[in-house]
Write a structure and sequence with these properties.
The complex is a heterotetramer, with two copies of chain A (331 residues) and two copies of chain B (374 residues). Chain A is of the alpha/beta class and 331 residues long. In chain A, 37% of the residues lie in helices and 20% in strands. Chain B has one domain (2-11, 27-345): 3-Layer(aba) Sandwich (Rossmann fold), CATH 3.40.50. In chain B, helix 3 runs parallel beside helix 9 (249-266) and helix 5 packs across helix 12 (320-343). The chains are: A alpha/beta (331), B alpha/beta (374). The structure holds thiamine diphosphate (2 copies) and magnesium ion (2 copies). One magnesium ion (MG) binds at residues 183-185, 213, 215-216 of chain B. Chains A, C: GO terms for molecular function: magnesium ion binding; pyruvate dehydrogenase (acetyl-transferring) activity.
Chain lengths: 331, 374, 331, 374
């Protein structure tokens, strides 16, 4: 068991899978000579050469589509999309091709590929470079979408994604790359499609994914320490499929829930979570499910504006407190 | 960059060694002498086989149009009428383990690549025996065995995929070639540009074939492409490009064979533009009112099936009876395809959730519209 | 008051706006010589010439982006995207540019443009040509998204959209083009952002938009006639902004709701509607909000499969009946 | 298609009549004679003004790098270091009512197009006095008055927009021109292809300028563009393309002026490739470790600011004191810009919902993260 960063976990897993499977190769912009915009692939070009680590022109549609085509012949491309914002350019190849080929041709040809990409705001990158649009993928049957929040999950879910025979959108987050956590030497097999209860509790359920799952964890710990609140934390981990059962089970126990998400509120990932909980835990909910999400604006560059627009430990804490107040469960 | 070719009979500068060229039978009789003047180096058998295939595609497409009108076929239905020489010429140059990606106008390609016409018609009829088990329809045929890696309905969608398939061949040092068919209008979309650049940059064995039928749906090439000699666009990628008369099956075969074998041997991609006409509307429902009388006339006059038939007869490769016999057989095959399709079972609605994922996954939704979530 | 088709209403409105405002022009694939894939623009090239009715190459990103650029200089382009499926190719220009330009540059430059596009399945067009992905637009601050279901709304909302100074995604539907309805000579001004109660009722609220709003209407009428059920029907009309108040008001009255949508269930438009109702009408809901949506598969071509996958009057009727049974309100 | 130009001093074949060319002062003294040998037809005043602007951009960018290191500036920050001659040469050919679209590497363009350096720096500092009121940051400058219609952070994003702006000019029969700046790496993306085709097809007054600094982020042109002589790509659209030495401000001015005026008079689009070097990393945080020693050396040696200074001195347009004085002024302006930025107010968080829509709309969400929906 070693404590490593999320970045390192990704890097090591890519490397190991490349070592064990000749069919795995990396493709993307600036992943080789430049070593990756966020340095996930540092050193891999030197180790594996240009065949296995392929720098592409700036052509998201072209190179993602090429990865889909290569996967159709049985290779296992791991494409890096520099940030999820640029993935819009490749969306037709992902939604209309990668996600459709298996079904549209009656199950004759699978598309075993991974698209790694970070989302996330809070770095003052402005409106076009700070989006959380995983919804665009989570909505699409035929795709699988995972969003690990810890180095350990990053490792096991990347492993599972590469070995999976379907196209997987693997969501990372700019602000998670430097976070640290324990990662077992032998990665456990984490199943795609399963959420995790990362902290047991009884007063309230806090649900998050990606960065906000870690914020949820921190908030829960702080509330426990400082206010004796017992919050259960659920990390979605998989956005498609969505593990409704785990969510509902938790809320049937706690009777209330707060969802923390980095994307915009209306139609965001949390909308489905709230809808599912309101349905599956209808008789157990003491108050409405509360959502903490980004303000619905093109995210401004200036720090005070950006800070006001994005969810944080503070806004989540407020929402949890207010939820507990509403059910009269604050001590 | 080659100039417009009408019929390049000379062998290509590279790659001819592996070309599957039909041997010339230097026969002693008059008709073979005559044939070898009009079609030097071609065996009558090969020529007849081309005609057989072209006639079959013609009849097949006519049946498809009928089936559509009878509401046996749904969705959109785009026909290869007028493109038979191109289709047959191109397909004759691919090995069965070479890969083909096409657009949605692909019935003829599917047949000429080696799929049973019955399975192609069954796909149009949406039956389980179809090339895509009824999941794809007219626009989305697929067959692993014959190497048809898909017809695609999104304009330009197949181009990055084909490039990626060529990348996989290169990755595995295979000797297959990918052919990527598309229409003239497709050269204006971004994926075309991105893919040709990538293919040239990485030296991938893919031949991009632009079937120039002068029209997108109703928009002419002149109104959509600033460089209307489309093959010249290859120059933006330092790629070889050339143009050939798409109504001439032998010319298409020659050009395609040269570029396919060049790709096979050197890995170099190329672009081939074939020029022909769309005989009917964009799809079966389109009356084509926007077309000028001349354009329609020109198309009819250039009809590659009729023209090739006349050539074969004048070259005495075939006589009228022989031609009629081939057409009769084509008709019989097309009818058999219809019968096969009509007799085939519809997919069972219970299979609805069978092809969402290749690897089963926890919590996959298998809800019908009336089912509650919980 | 004339009875005309939805198609005619669109056509006439485009024409009238072109007559009154020189800055309005049409741009899109096959809208001129071919008269539009669905013939909405028939005759307009002849009447207005190539400057006002511009056939484009097949280049969704290029021509939509050009429309955005033209709008930045104050023109009012109405772009036709042949179907919403092809809009994915233009998504970067719509989401990262049209929707961002006003905010990202501090309100200096507005983008007064309309993107008309039909969605819809049920025509056996297969997995890539039958999608309902209005969510991709409804999710984005900076865009406005309207989805009229009647000829009258098509007319007034198109008018409002063209006159609006923001980018508006105007959602049509293949199966609505031939539907007929009364359209007042003088179009009323319908405000973007407002839902409509299209049928008052007291037993249950049925919510839909676009095609499913009309199905909801039919189902409600049939249930009234045949089973004496009083269903209130709400047509969302605007997906962004979403008129939560009108929805909540209705459900506070009826105590239960069924949402009918053509898109996929998980993360679909209905998720937000259900989440909002479960929150805003928490104390009024007698049973969970029910959703009727498409099966989550790449839509197959074959008719029996397609029929099984798509929502219909039948599946909606079943859901409404089951909801009423659950609250014990069926007579 | 023109061949590579190094310094085309001749007037263009078309469009020269409207060129705003600085008049030649045929002076009597030695230094002016000397100057007119090295810079025939150029007024010393114009040349000094170019140097003034180049020096200002150099100092400004150095201050921006400092501000970034001091965390006064956030996000990404891409500098024009090494591209000063290109920037100044290009901008000198635009009228103030001509429009400019650029990528995210646009501080220099903003200044040279006529925006107060203080407002540019204030944008970097995220202040309300900035060109985008602090909403855009380094990558997203905008100014209606000076015709800067935006820096854009999405590679290729500005190209369709610029084409559309040219369409609007054409629509209104205006006589403005649009310039669309982009990097070498941008020529590989689909929007480039789609837009150049549209611009050529519709004859729109836009000059596409490709600033070839040899690198995307760390990827060289050879590794990303199959046709690495980028100006040649214009041929795929029957568009005029040419290349010019981007380190030579006068050469850039000449070529740009010719193409801008040609666009103004005939509506014809064109593509101009300027070749220069990126002196530092892709953005301020990039140490550029991937670059070869030679490449770094070559860039340093070609430094357009140092080279132009030396030329001006050797041509006796300036003496050392004059040069130092200009640099001192540049430094003062850059410092003043920093002071202005630093003194400017931060945007008020209460303005967060002010710029979502230009036309107010019912039921718009104005929720902060901690606010409940109901
Ligand atoms: C991305 C995209 N845009 C638009 C369409 C609608 N469409 C279908 S076929 C077609 C014309 C294609 O013309 P061309 O490439 O010349 O092929 P052809 O039909 O002539 O074989 C168009 C615009 C589409 N399917 N995909
Ligand atoms: C669509 C898109 N893909 C990737 C990026 C990340 N990116 C930012 S700058 C850049 C390199 C651009 O190179 P070039 O066009 O030569 O411009 P330069 O930075 O050299 O001025 C890349 C890949 C982006 N911003 N947008
Ligand atoms: Mg065509
Ligand atoms: Mg560059």
């Amino acid at each position: 068991m070693a404590v490593i960063t999320y970045r390192q976990a990704l890097h090591d897993t890519l490397r190991e899978e490349m070592l064990v499977d000749e069919d795995v190769f990396l493709i993307g912009e600036e992943i080789g000579v430049f070593e990756g915009s966020y340095k996930i692939t540092a050193g891999l070009l030197d180790e594996f050469g240009e065949k296995r680590v392929r720098d592409t022109p700036i052509a998201e549609e072209g190179f993602v589509g090429a990865a889909v085509g290569a996967a159709m012949l049985g290779l296992r491309p791991v494409a890096e999309l520099m940030t999820i914002n640029f993935s819009l350019i490749a969306l037709d190849q992902i939604v209309n091709h990668a996600a459709k080929i298996y079904g549209m041709f009656g199950g004759q040809c699978s598309v075993p590929m991974v698209m790694r990409t970070p989302g996330g705001g809070g770095q003052q990158l402005g409106a076009t470079h700070s989006q959380n649009i995983e919804l665009y993928y989570a909505f699409v049957p035929g795709l699988k979408v995972v969003a690990p929040s810890t180095p350990a999950d990053a490792r096991s879910l990347l492993l599972a994604s590469i070995r999976d025979n379907d196209p997987v959108l693997f969501l990372e987050n700019l602000s998670l790359y430097n976070t640290k956590g324990e990662v077992p030497e032998q990665a456990e097999q984490v199943e795609i499609g399963k959420a995790a209860v990362t902290r047991p509790g009884s007063d309230v359920t806090i649900i998050g994914y990606s960065r906000m799952a870690t914020v949820a964890q921190q908030v829960a710990e702080k509330l426990a320490d400082e206010e004796g609140i017992s919050a259960e934390v659920v990390d979605l981990r998989s956005l498609r499929p969505l593990d409704r059962d785990t969510l509902v089970q938790s809320v049937r126990k706690t009777g209330c829930a707060v969802i923390a998400e980095d994307d915009w509120l209306t139609y965001g990932i949390g909308a489905e979570v709230a809808a599912s909980l309101s349905d599956g835990a209808f008789d157990y909910l003491d108050v409405p499910v509360r959502r903490v999400a980004a303000a619905e604006v093109p995210l401004p560059y200036a720090k005070p504006l950006e800070r006001a627009a994005l969810p944080s430990a503070d806004s989540l804490t407020t929402a949890v407190r207010e939820t507990l107040d509403a059910v009269g469960r604050r001590r | 960059m080659a100039e417009t070719a009408t019929r390049s009979k000379s062998a290509s500068s590279s790659g001819s060694s592996k070309t599957r060229r039909a041997g010339t039978r230097s026969g002693g009789n008059r008709s073979q002498r005559r044939a070898s003047e009009v079609f030097p180096g071609e065996s009558p058998q090969t020529l007849c086989d081309y005609y057989r295939q072209m006639a079959l595609i013609r009849r097949f497409e006519e049946r498809a149009a009928q089936g559509y009108t009878q509401a046996k076929i749904g969705g959109y239905c785009h026909l290869n009428l007028g493109e038979e020489a191109t289709v047959v010429g191109l397909m004759s140059t691919l090995r069965s383990d070479d890969y083909l990606f096409t657009n949605y106008r692909e019935h003829g390609y599917a047949i000429a690549k080696g799929i049973e016409p019955g399975r192609v018609m069954a796909e149009l009829y949406g039956r389980s025996t179809g090339t895509s088990k009824g999941w794809g329809g007219s626009m989305h045929m697929f067959d692993v065995e014959s190497g048809l890696l898909g017809g695609y309905g999104i304009v330009g969608g197949q181009v990055p995929l084909a490039t990626g398939a060529a990348l996989a061949i290169d990755y595995r040092s295979g000797d297959q070639v990918v052919m990527c068919q598309m229409g003239d209008g497709t050269t204006n979309i971004g994926s075309f540009h991105e893919s040709l650049n990538i293919a040239a940059l990485w030296n991938l064995p893919v031949v991009f074939v632009v079937v120039n039928n002068h029209l997108g749906m109703g928009t002419t090439v002149d109104k959509s492409s600033a460089e209307s000699e489309l093959y010249k666009r290859a120059v933006a990628y330092r790629m070889h490009g050339e143009r050939v008369d798409g109504n001439d099956v032998v010319a298409v075969r020659e050009a395609s064979s040269r570029l396919v074998e060049r790709a096979r041997e050197t890995g170099q991609p190329a672009m081939l533009e074939t020029v022909s006409h769309r005989l009917k509307g964009h799809s079966v429902v389109d009356p084509g009112k926007y077309r000028s009388q001349e354009s329609v006339e020109a198309a009819r006059e250039a009809d590659p099936v009729a023209a090739f038939r006349a050539q074969l007869i004048s070259a005495e490769v075939l006589d009228e009876d022989g031609a009629v016999e081939i057409e009769r057989q084509a008709e019989a095959s097309a009818d058999a395809a219809v019968a096969f399709a009509d007799d085939s079972p519809h997919p069972n609605p219970e299979t609805l959730f069978d092809y969402t994922y290749a690897t089963p996954v926890a919590n996959d939704s298998r809800r019908l519209p009336a089912d509650p979530v919980f």
